[in-house]
Amino acid sequence: MQMSVEETRIVTGSSASARIIAAGIVIGFCYWASTVLVTLLVAVLMAYFLDPVVTWLERVHVSRALGSLLVVLVTLALLAVLGWSLINRADQFSQDWPNYRAPLRALAQAVESRLENIEAHVSEIEPGARAGSRIVTVAESHPVRDALVGRLNSLYVFLLAATFVPFLVFFMLAAKRQVWHATMQLFPAADRTQVRDTLADVTQVLRSYLMGTAMVGLILVLASWIFFWGIGLDFPFLTALVSGVCNLVPYLGAILSWIPPLLIGLKQFRTVGPYVGIFAMLTFFHIVTANLLIPALVGWRVRLNALALTVSLLFWGWMWGAMGLVLAIPITAVIKVICDHVERLQPVGRWMSA
Questions:
Q1: Does some domain include residue 16?
Q2: Contacts of 304 (CB under 8 A, 6+ apart)
């Protein structure tokens, strides 16, 4: 017996409401369990990045468990060396902080005086200006100490998550085949071929993105390092590392990459010329990266249009902050691959790459 038009409308409305509620539950869970999900996603990306090395070791007759352990230990050692180098550079920067604070204070005072002049002109125009306002003097605080105290909770969460990442990466690498087989068993036998093809495309997309992004980031850091060293900027490697990584951010990367050399250069440069050169060169790096390096090295597999990319950056950045900006592109690329392999979601996949 066919349903009436009214019954069809009720069923359709109930289905739409159920989807909206389910989407709200998923978004709420992603926000509430952000630490766990970000930790898992970072571990998954690192496992995809390191898996070719483990596979190569397996081909030269090194067991997968031992190869996974060696790769994770070497990666941790390299990160420790890099972290120690950055700590030393940051310590030198903190010792020179009074030299950098003076130009910043002068700039802040100039901006404050300009705002006071504007306020004075506005108060002359406004007849009912308030008189006898009380002036409150705020004692100067140490910026590094205040930042550390304000971020203790975030630092604790970060260290807790970072502690689990090496173990997760090791288990994912060592038990790759078992995890793959168990994942296949979650789906009906008739759908396993489609699931296998989807996971293979996801692997290809993530590996292409990670390898390409790593190469682009290395090129940006080296180019920025050479440029900063050539103009005589203090702490050229530390500045190049932060500026080069910031330059990878789509759209906003050029502006973000200006901030580190701008702060470092306040102590050294007293004319506008060096700053114009820094802005021009870093903007040139960003244009070359966005239009040449990323298409060539990241490849054609990560096909996301500008609108989908911008929306994903806004959404995941709001959801998870800085880590959301880092994970937005691979998450959206995986969603697109899944949409391409599910028939009723293929229009969404085509829209994301149109």
A1: no
A2: 312, 329, 332, 333, 336, 352, 353
